[in-house]
Amino acid sequence: MNILDKIILDKKREVELKKSIIPVSQLESSVLFDSRTVSLSKILRSSQTGIIAEHKRRSPSKSEINYNFTVEEVVKGYESAGVCGISVLTDGKYFGGSLDDLLLARASVNVPLLRKEFIVDEYQILEAKAHGADLILLIAAVLTREEIKQLSEFAESLGLEVLLEVHNLDELRKSIMPSLNMIGVNNRNLKTFEVSLDFSKTLASEIPNEFVKVSESGISSIEAINELKLYGYKGFLIGENFMKTDNAGASAKEFISKLI
């Protein structure tokens, strides 16, 4: 069993436990549940930079990244830097995140927020809406086509956008459907953690133009972004490159200033 299989097994157990304690009605009564969401895909289409910065304390591949700053400090720094959106890791066991992180981010900034999570159930999408997310991530590697359809259409019904993450051509081909807004290519193989921008370059021409193309992981230079833009990418998700510094917001600001 690889690390991704372990994460999904744990996640399914976690969701069932949460369902037994917090009913759907409680999530739907959240003060944020009926709030209007902001479209990240529209922002990316017209942005010069396309940066989606990430709040990420640790990961299975890098262990601890940064525990020194509050969510508020990080996301306000990102907003001040001019990011298009912010990804917030909410997985606890493997990434050190929580739904509270998403809630605190929502209370701190007005930019679009992505709930970065291993979503396997509609319940998690309700959680995302109740905690202030504007969009969710779906990972093709752990979902069937029918599950992607069901979950993306449910998100759409709640006014949430969907970023669908793929890693190879098979995942992309099984996933393309109208209920998606953005297709992200993860440059990190979730099973081996190998990282290469070639994954984004190879799949670029296979992604239909109606979807905003996002490149994720392993992006650490201006040159990489300028190169990926030639392949039609409008969004660039960067986490560790900013979070591993002493000031994630300042690091993002310096990076973005070189793109404009």
From TrEMBL:
Enzyme class at the top of the EC tree: lyase
Domain Indole-3-glycerol phosphate synthase: 4-254
Official protein name in the record: Indole-3-glycerol phosphate synthase
Pathway the protein contributes to: Amino-acid biosynthesis; L-tryptophan biosynthesis; L-tryptophan from chorismate: step 4/5
UniProt organism field: Flavobacterium myungsuense
EC number: 4.1.1.48
Molecular function GO labels: indole-3-glycerol-phosphate synthase activity
Record family assignment: Belongs to the TrpC family.
Origin organism lineage: Bacteria, Pseudomonadati, Bacteroidota, Flavobacteriia, Flavobacteriales
